[in-house]
Amino acid sequence: MGQVVSERPIGGNGSGPGMNGHGGGAIRSYAPATGELLGEAPNTSAEEVRAAVARARRAQEAWGALPVEERCQRVLRFRDAIVDRTDEIVDLLSRECGKPRHEALLHEVLVAADMATYFAQVAPKALEPHEIKLHLFKHRRSWVHYVPRGVVGVISPWNFPFQLALRDVLSAIVAGNAAVLKPSEVTPLIALKQKEIWDGAGMPEDLFQVVTGYGPTGAALIDSGIQMLLFTGSVGTGRKVAAACGERLIPCVMELGGKAPLIACADADIERTAQAIVFGGFANAGQVCVAVERVYAHREIHDRLLERTVEITKGLNQGDPGKEFVDVGAIIFPPQIDVAERHIKDAVDKGATVKAGGKRAPGQGQFFEPTVLAGCDHAMTVMTEEIFGPVVPFMQVATEEEAIRLANESHLGLNAYVFSEDTDHARRLAERLQAGSVLVNDVLMNGALPDAPFGGVKQSGFGRVMGEDGLRQMCDVKHINADRIALGSKDPTWFPYTASSYSWFKRGMRALFSSGSFLRRIGELF
Ligand code: NAD
């Protein structure tokens, strides 16, 4: 097995080298697949974070004043620079995250390029001021304007370090804000690469800043005078981050963990469902917030589906993505393997069977075999807690009702999946699932749909990113109201308050808001 893969402290973000909030020293980044030291990044202090935010604020003033079309054109230049440097980014992603090159290309670089394109295409229309038709006070007119908030803080995780960070950074920037990114301490080099590409593309240098560091650097970002925070990470950290934002009354979006259920109905296409379970469970070695984390298979197809899933799983090619084209790469750091082992042991102790995988893979680096468990139920943690590793537990259900009930029996609600040949029927089941997104006959792909809102319910978080609403959310909503018809020197509702004006308004209210006939309501006035 590999040696050290990261110096991120195990089990939290409160102690360890450089963890006292004063910064200093450096973060070392290691390749999960080989244990090789890849490089170092600064451990940014609270003071340096504040200085970065102050620089970003100054840069934002000019940027926010540009027409949105101009901002979009410039963001597309940055997108072009990303596309031009695809190989270099893919290479670093596969080394620093241990992810297969296909996934680095398709799930990170391509998705980021598409998001930049989408935001640039829709922003001019989505952020245009528009008039609201007032239903009662017709003598006035109202408009809604979208005003950049200022500096948006982005705190991101390690599992999709390229696209998740840019999703938030670019939507903030297109909307006229500056962005300061605190990337995961496990993948700092990718974030520094993003900054290098940004600067190299001639973008305003201070508008996008990267402050690498551990948890305290993230905490310092929240405390540095930012106007909004976009956080993506675990439920535990999200709780602390949301509390810190609440303390400072900073609006925040929380993109947290998931425990996506997949319901396989009796009429599901077995081959597609099995392929989807394997892809949805083992892409990025299962380290995906929307990974298939539990399967509820109808008893009529359970055995055939399980058998085919196991067969496909056993055919996966796992290894060092730096050396060859592999299907499944490495696990980011040792605690993720410990978590997978703990869930598997708990499940097996309570009667589950390991049908494929189940253990660390031999050789250099951090690898865990893609694992399929059968005979699982909700007494096992593998069905109820986020695994975030390559483990897919199966549970047989007698009815769809049972599957829906169990799928909803979770404190998390990010994604859910329904497989059935009857798409309309599956959509009706989807409506009953407690999740931010439900996909019918597909998995994972909504993470790559910038057109649609993305986010969770329950402890999977709150707020939405992506889609036109996601863009608008990067702005303060300003309402401007002006006169259409001037009412003279003063309005009738202003001072003085008299008995006769009170009586007149009361009759007017009854005429407007009672349910009688038109004539009766008019009669109220006299
Ligand atoms: P994490 O919560 O450990 O860390 C996330 C980020 O928060 C890191 O940058 C970390 O340095 C920072 N951080 C830690 N303590 C902090 C503090 N006190 N104040 C401010 N920032 C702090 O998560 P992770 O292990 O990097 O990522 C995995 C988790 O992220 C999983 O639970 C996964 O489901 C979730 N995730 C969610 C989504 C989504 O869109 N909902 C996407 C990807 C990952």
TrEMBL record:
Q: Where is the composition biased (Gly residues)?
A: 11-26
Residues spanning the membrane: none
Listed InterPro entries: Ald_DH/histidinol_DH (IPR016161), Ald_DH_C (IPR016163), Ald_DH_CS_CYS (IPR016160), Ald_DH_CS_GLU (IPR029510), Ald_DH_N (IPR016162), Aldehyde_DH_dom (IPR015590), Aldehyde_DH_NAD(P) (IPR012394)
Family that this chain belongs to: Belongs to the aldehyde dehydrogenase family.
- Domain spans labelled Aldehyde dehydrogenase: 25-480
Q: Where is the active site?
A: E255
User: Any idea which UniProt keywords this protein has?
Assistant: Oxidoreductase
Question: Does the record's keyword annotation contain Cytoplasm?
Answer: no
Entries under CDD domains matching the protein:
ALDH_DDALDH (cd07099)
Q: What is this protein called?
A: Aldehyde dehydrogenase
Organism of provenance: Sorangium atrum
**One Pfam family linked to the record:** Aldedh
Q: Where is this region: Disordered?
A: 1-27
